[in-house]
Design a protein that fits this description.
single chain, about 130 residues, 6 helices, globular
Length: about 130
Amino acid sequence: MWGKRWLERLEGHDPIAVHRALTAVAEAAPGQRITRDAARHALAASEVVAAGLGKPAEGLPAGAQRVADSLRPQIKTLQAHAQAAVERIRNDQIDIDPHDEWDEPDGATDAANADAREWQTQMDLLSLRLAD
């Protein structure tokens, strides 16, 4: 699951944090660099949207699920933003990967390749949970 620490703190904040996180990536200008934190937060916010659609990730913090439930009246708009954010992160050449597993020391090619496959698998699963 993406951004678990951000998700664990989410309940203490206004649900507008989900909107902001998605908008920062989904509505970024073409060619605008997406920061590591922006990507992580957008992926975590996308997890909240998926939960609001009734497709939560395993291990989603209870507070994040409560926020997802509170966002249900807006879920279709958020769904479109989440899908756009995930695609932007997936397709852009982000120089710092938002998934920590890619931070491997030099010479760790096999581990990095396995992490790259896991990254892609997790992105695919999130995309599927965001689909209608």
